[in-house]
Amino acid sequence: MSTQTNNQSLIERLFGVGAHFGFKKSRRHPSVTPFLFGTKEGNDIFNLEQTSDLINSAKDVVKEAAMNGKTILFVGTKTEVVESVKAAAVKAEMPYVVNRWIGGMITNLSEIKKRIFRMEELVREQESGELERKYTKKERLLLGRELTKLNHNFFGISKMTKTPDIMVVVDPRHDAIAIKEAQFMNVPVIGIMSSDCNVKDVTYPVLVNDALQGSVKLVLEELVASIAEGKAAYVPKVVAPRPVSTTPRSDYRPRTPRA
């Protein structure tokens, strides 16, 4: 299938899920104007040909990242996209944040890791029965609440050992703190955004209706498919062992054994 046919198919699917509908013109951020086809009954309408090109650019980025074993963090905390973002991240085997962005998740990762370690410690004690042996009923209740909160906030990034190489953020305006931390850490951001967002806040904008589940899900599925392609081509780097020299150094002097 040719690239043109692929693009046409993507445009039709985007149209089918209503991805072309932006918000009211009064809510428009000036930076999105070049990506609009026009307005209809006061609502902005995206140019789906441009949107298709933006999606393909984002797909190339995540595919290359996956080919090189990079980490892609998925972020989307507003209610209507939580399930789609989580499902996409799980399928791509990548970390995610869907409940709440805790300040410092990437700018102060060392502290966040301490909270993750605490969560894992409580899970181990719970599974081994140690909680039952060590603590009273009241203490176990408090620890259970602590574990629930830690799971809620950090489970999605519990396997993230370093700063992500790329972030995919649904509605950068809603998750503005995540965007600011990414900017501070120079982490490129793919922003799935509607007409009320600032295109300049992200590295790779994708202009679609970010309030419709079908619209967001379609874009995420396209990205996840490209990540899978990249992973299939990923070849881990093999570090060759350093050769052991049998030639003594010129400054080598044998040590005299102690008596």
UniProtKB/TrEMBL annotation:
<dbReference type="GO" id="GO:0003735">
    <property type="term" value="F:structural constituent of ribosome"/>
</dbReference>
<dbReference type="InterPro" id="IPR023591">
    <property type="entry name" value="Ribosomal_uS2_flav_dom_sf"/>
</dbReference>
<keyword id="KW-0687">Ribonucleoprotein</keyword>
<dbReference type="Pfam" id="PF00318">
    <property type="entry name" value="Ribosomal_S2"/>
</dbReference>
<dbReference type="InterPro" id="IPR005706">
    <property type="entry name" value="Ribosomal_uS2_bac/mit/plastid"/>
</dbReference>
<protein>
    <recommendedName>
        <fullName>Small ribosomal subunit protein uS2</fullName>
    </recommendedName>
</protein>
<dbReference type="GO" id="GO:0015935">
    <property type="term" value="C:small ribosomal subunit"/>
</dbReference>
<dbReference type="InterPro" id="IPR001865">
    <property type="entry name" value="Ribosomal_uS2"/>
</dbReference>
<dbReference type="InterPro" id="IPR018130">
    <property type="entry name" value="Ribosomal_uS2_CS"/>
</dbReference>
<comment type="similarity">
    <text>Belongs to the universal ribosomal protein uS2 family.</text>
</comment>
<keyword id="KW-0689">Ribosomal protein</keyword>
<dbReference type="GO" id="GO:0006412">
    <property type="term" value="P:translation"/>
</dbReference>
